[in-house]
Amino acid sequence: MSEATEELDLLPEIDAKAEAILQRVGLGAQEDRSASAVLVNHDLRVALSEVEGVEIMPIQDALMKYDWVQSLMFNLIKPDENELLRQAAELLNDPIGHFLYVHDGVKLDLPIQSFTLMELPQGRQFTHNITVIGKDAEVEMISGAGVPANVHAGHHVSIEETYVREGARCRSVSIESWGSKMAVESYSRSEIGEGAEMVSNQIMLAPLSNHLSDTKTWIGKDASCSDQATIFAPQDTRRVFENETYLTAPGARSESMARMVSAGGTIINNALLVGQAGDTNGFLGCDGLKLSDEGEILAVPALRAECAASQLSHEASVGMIDAEKLAYLMAAGLSEDRARQLIVQGFLNLRDQYMPEEMREQVTEMIAAAKSGGM
Amino acid sequence: MLELRNVSVSVGDKLILQNVNLTVNAGEVHVLLGPNGSGKSSILAAIMGLPPFEVTEGEILYSGQDIGELDIDERARLGLGLAFQHPPDIDGVTVAEFAAALGAGDTLTAEAEALNMADFPDRDLIVGFSGGEIKRWEVLKLFLQSPDLLLFDEPESGVDLEHIAAVGAAVDRLVSQPAGDGSKRAALLITHTGLILEHVHADHGHIINHGQIIHSGAPHDLFRHIQRSGYVAPASEAIAGETV
Q: Cβ distance A269 to A299 under 8 Å?
């Protein structure tokens, strides 16, 4: 690993050690990306785009450059939603974060990447990002977060406001790997415009102390949103998800799937799907796998139809590893740990999910460590 | 190679097998014939150590070692391999990933072709397999695992005649191959219909009913007897071959 670290030179302004940390959660070289943003501690170290029609810049620069950005900030989320957000919005001076703007009609061959690194033990981070995917644009985004091995504790709060304009297509992958004693609160709000399509995949596997993920998505006329979440909670990890999806206009579609594995940690998944218009269709899926008697999984999918012609459904299950499957694999000569690992990997459906190969290996190791009590 | 001495098996409070004695030597192929619910599959499950079957009396010896207290995977690593009758779906794990976990990726490539399963490595294990595919897969699995003692639980059940020939030929080929150390393999094969006997050379047959082995003899003779008289012990003069 150390040799590879010395050879890395993915982005300007980012040292090799930081690159190595972020590479494990998906960081790639600038030549393989349309644009890059990397926030290190309180500094947007990289905001780089060499593609016409893609702008990425510190949010304070965007507020100066485009007056309409003001109307997008704290538009989908209000500072008075809770005390933490109020403090974050009012007490800090300049907001830290990036503004990403993909102009109308821009279709990108290479993904845009955005990463957050917290290098300071016991550090505090508050970030606010705004993303605008213009009309009929097509974009793939990779984002992630990481910390060095010596950073265990700290507090990270993020706000994301994302606007996917009419007819745009956006696919995003997000991988986080925070410190094991960290508290993380992420507030994400997305508005999916008419005829737009959003596909997102979130991978949350590394241990951390407390994680709150608060997400709201508004899906417009004939727009669709498909999201997958892969969630792992080892011992001493608590993850709480508060997700709300609103099908706001005819033709809106959504499909949401969460796969949750508790290896002694706690996962609480409150998901609400609201049909606000006719000819809408939505599905919520929550599958949980409980590997030990410690911790808990609470899956609460809820449906609210405000219109007669809104088709909403959900499916939830929580169970343990099937003894029959375990016996079958062990009868072929696999150890119990290896057999459990295969079953968990299969349950998480990792194979079909896009993720950097380095992360895939890390995830496999993480699951193996959780089984042997090493985590 | 395998010896069952007065083995009784229960599931919970229910006695499934009673005082079963059976010896399978290296190079031998034994066939267990019995009706549904007779306890055939329970014998294999008990040998392999599968839950919920519990050996309540007697001993199961493998190469002279009492394996009664060993875990399933320990038995497998000693050289036992079981082709399941009803294997569970293992979602999200491909045949190739499973073979890799066994360290048998190369064998998969070679043997999948031979079993007309060349397109299987990317499929999820068992998920969506047809009846015939399950049977071929279970034999292929044993090729990957390369055990010394092969246990087959109804390899022909629910399979059309064409598939029975293919499965039977593969079973026969596997049984005939020497084990990894060059020694002879042995097999214990359960059949409900007896059709697999057309394709597998078996040396010894046993009729099992109501949880007990009630008669042993030449497999084809026993099969003909069962076709005539059902799963009952024949009168000693009614059938050629060995008797218990």
A: yes
Residues A16, A51 contacting (CB under 8 angstroms) = no
Per-residue pLDDT for chain B (244 aa), expressed as one digit of tens each?
A: 999 999 999 999 999 999 999 999 999 999 999 888 888 899 999 999 999 999 999 999 999 999 999 999 999 999 999 999 999 999 989 999 999 999 988 888 888 888 888 888 989 999 999 888 898 899 999 999 999 999 999 888 877 877 788 888 888 888 888 887 888 999 999 987 778 888 888 889 999 988 999 999 998 888 888 888 888 888 764 554 444 3
Residue for token digits 């997008």? A72
Q: Is A338 on the interface with B (CB under 8 A)?
A: yes
Task: Quick: pLDDT tens for B181-222.
Answer: 888 999 999 987 778 888 888 889 999 988 999 999 998 888
**Which of A328, A340, A345, A352 should we substitute to test contact with B (largest number of B Cβ atoms within 10 Å)?**
A328
Residue B98 structure tokens: 């499973």
C-alpha to C-alpha distance for A186 and A212, rounded to whole angstroms:
6
Residue A131 near residue A190 (C-beta atoms within 8 A): no
Give the A:B interface size as CB pairs under 8 Å. Answer: 71
Point out the residue among A325, A332, A343 whose CB comes nearest to the CB of B141. A332
Distance, CA of A284 to CA of A254 (rounded, Å)? 8
For chain B, how big is the Rg over CA atoms in Å? 17
Among candidates B51, B88, B101 on the partner chain, residue whose Cβ is nearest the Cβ of A342 = B101
Chain A residues touching residue B51 (CB < 8 angstroms): 323, 327
Secondary structure class of A247 (helix, strand, coil): strand
With beta carbons less than 8 A apart as the criterion, state whether A314 and A303 touch. Answer: yes
- A363–B contact, CB cutoff 8 A: no
Residue B132 three-state SS: helix
Distance CA(A148)–CA(A30), nearest Å, equals 22
The pTM (predicted TM-score) of the whole model is 0.83
Q: Hey, which residues does B29 pair with through a beta bridge?
A: B187
For residue B87 the two structure tokens come to: 């294997």
Task: Please state, in angstroms and rounded to a whole number, the distance separating the CA atoms of residues B140 and B112.
Answer: 7
Residues of chain B contacting A342 with CB distance shorter than 8 Å: 90, 93, 97-98, 101
pLDDT averaged over every residue in chain A: 89
Q: Does A330 touch chain B (CB under 8 A)?
A: yes
Note whether A162 and A197 are within 8 A (CB): no
The alpha-carbon gap from A346 to the nearest alpha carbon of chain B, in Å, equals 4
| A325 vs B75, B88, B144: nearest CB | B88
Q: Where are the beta strands (DSSP E) in A235-327?
A: 238-247, 253-263, 266-275, 280-290, 296-305, 310-320
Question: In B, which residues are within 8 Å of A325 by CB distance?
Answer: 88-90
